[in-house]
Amino acid sequence: MVVDYSKWDALEISDDSDIEVHPNVDKKSFIRAKQAQIHQERDRRRHQITTLKYERIINDGLIMRIDNLLTALKSHKADADDSDKLLFRSMIESAGDPADDQPPPPPPGVHDQMKEKPTYSQMMGSLLDQVKKEVDESKSENRLEAFITEIRKHGDRVKALQGELYAKLAELEKEEKRHITSDDIHTGFDYSNVKAAAPIPSSSTTSKPKPQSTVEVLNPGALQRDPLTRTDTGQSSGADADIEEGTNSDGDETEASPLGKEFAKIKAGDYKACLAFISAHPEVLAERETDGLLVEAFNSELDGKHKHAKQCVHQALLIQYCRQLGGRDGVGLFFKRITTKDHQANKLFTDDVDSTYRRIHTRAAEIAEERAANPQSAEGVEQIQLHAVDPNTKINISIPPATPTSDDPAERAGQEEARKVFDAFPPGLQRALESGSLDEVNKVLAKMSVEEAEEVVGKLGEGGMLSLEQGVIDATTEEGKKAMEEIERSGRMPGFVEEEQLAGDPE
């Protein structure tokens, strides 16, 4: 059997190597010196491999952020906006997750001379400063295209360096594998058998079916019949009135929260106080706070509070910028850039605040002109409201029983017909009738159009659900208003005769 000794060719030197040395040189000393040299070269090679692998990770993260920045800039080519402003916004959009902004710590012995390791945001900021300087020197007419070109050049340089790094790393790893060291010794095969403990049976082996929840409909009859359906929109009469007072819904108007209003009181430009407030109340970075402050700014502008309106715009955009950067690191990066003297970020942010306020100011002026030209538009719409003719008379509301209670066939048929009319009403109107309060019914009628309300009042009369006298005053019409004014002025009903004016007793 032929023995293959080729694997020992990778040995660099051995204590019993058959080597020739100078007669004046001790063989053992020569071998120890040679071994020391080999160990030094090996340690240096391994240090280079570790350093290159770490730099490869850093370069990959930097290349990814440069590509994201280029993509964001290209997406804004169609925007007719300031190129410097677009560059700042693109940098914010491409910042990524703030948790990934800090590069991984270097291995021991790698870049120990650097006390403070820069973050990816700092690297990108330095790159953009250099790019902006180069674009300013080139005096290009299309600054946005010049920014894209210069950033692409820097990206190509980093990619070229990354290619050289990969080649050097492959060469060093090949050289490392060419030699046998004690680090290459490993266990070729190992086996152990550990019997796992039997799982403990659970106390309950049967699973009970989960109870299913069903929705109980307040008005099941309306699912089969809806005589109050409008023919123009297909929406049931009074459907808009089926919203309970005080309930939250997606259609609620956006308004500034107390926290947002407190943040808006901080003077514009006092970034130290703003940073302290955000650090103490990070929930102010929510998107609803931005929307609420912008609504507050718009309302203040309508009321003529121009200074407060611009203050709200400034704080709203400050929240928006910090939220887009993301997290506490993003907030710190924003305030660091915005407070740096003569930094472009300050100018871009101020321009954005001014342009946003101008749009709000213009729109508020247009609305003011519209209101001045058409003052009736702000007075509301005509409504149907029910009032008893006699203030001392109480209008009783009677709900038809679900099951007829009368033995008379005619009355029984009338109760069934009245119940059908009641079931056809929207749930909001049904609840108002069930409350027995005329004010609740008027609230529902106020949410309807005049035609819908008249239709509902007619059906209430047909079903006998309102014990109304013949004269019902509609307080929104001219006749109704005059009648109510007469009642309030005199304290008497129209046609009321004093006792002294009555004829005496004929007997």
UniProtKB/TrEMBL annotation:
<dbReference type="InterPro" id="IPR004918">
    <property type="entry name" value="Cdc37"/>
</dbReference>
<feature type="region of interest" description="Disordered">
    <location>
        <begin position="94"/>
        <end position="115"/>
    </location>
</feature>
<dbReference type="Pfam" id="PF08565">
    <property type="entry name" value="CDC37_M"/>
</dbReference>
<dbReference type="GO" id="GO:0031072">
    <property type="term" value="F:heat shock protein binding"/>
</dbReference>
<feature type="compositionally biased region" description="Low complexity">
    <location>
        <begin position="199"/>
        <end position="214"/>
    </location>
</feature>
<dbReference type="InterPro" id="IPR013873">
    <property type="entry name" value="Cdc37_C"/>
</dbReference>
<dbReference type="GO" id="GO:0051082">
    <property type="term" value="F:unfolded protein binding"/>
</dbReference>
<dbReference type="InterPro" id="IPR013874">
    <property type="entry name" value="Cdc37_Hsp90-bd"/>
</dbReference>
<dbReference type="GO" id="GO:0019901">
    <property type="term" value="F:protein kinase binding"/>
</dbReference>
<feature type="domain" description="Cdc37 C-terminal">
    <location>
        <begin position="397"/>
        <end position="489"/>
    </location>
</feature>
<dbReference type="Pfam" id="PF08564">
    <property type="entry name" value="CDC37_C"/>
</dbReference>
<dbReference type="GO" id="GO:0050821">
    <property type="term" value="P:protein stabilization"/>
</dbReference>
<protein>
    <recommendedName>
        <fullName>Hsp90 chaperone protein kinase-targeting subunit</fullName>
    </recommendedName>
</protein>
<feature type="domain" description="Cdc37 N-terminal">
    <location>
        <begin position="2"/>
        <end position="192"/>
    </location>
</feature>
<feature type="domain" description="Cdc37 Hsp90 binding">
    <location>
        <begin position="202"/>
        <end position="380"/>
    </location>
</feature>
<dbReference type="InterPro" id="IPR013855">
    <property type="entry name" value="Cdc37_N_dom"/>
</dbReference>
<feature type="compositionally biased region" description="Acidic residues">
    <location>
        <begin position="497"/>
        <end position="507"/>
    </location>
</feature>
<feature type="compositionally biased region" description="Acidic residues">
    <location>
        <begin position="241"/>
        <end position="255"/>
    </location>
</feature>
<dbReference type="GO" id="GO:0051087">
    <property type="term" value="F:protein-folding chaperone binding"/>
</dbReference>
<dbReference type="InterPro" id="IPR038189">
    <property type="entry name" value="Cdc37_Hsp90-bd_sf"/>
</dbReference>
<dbReference type="Pfam" id="PF03234">
    <property type="entry name" value="CDC37_N"/>
</dbReference>
<dbReference type="GO" id="GO:0006457">
    <property type="term" value="P:protein folding"/>
</dbReference>
<feature type="region of interest" description="Disordered">
    <location>
        <begin position="487"/>
        <end position="507"/>
    </location>
</feature>
<keyword id="KW-0963">Cytoplasm</keyword>
<comment type="similarity">
    <text>Belongs to the CDC37 family.</text>
</comment>
<keyword id="KW-0143">Chaperone</keyword>
<feature type="region of interest" description="Disordered">
    <location>
        <begin position="199"/>
        <end position="257"/>
    </location>
</feature>
<dbReference type="GO" id="GO:0005737">
    <property type="term" value="C:cytoplasm"/>
</dbReference>
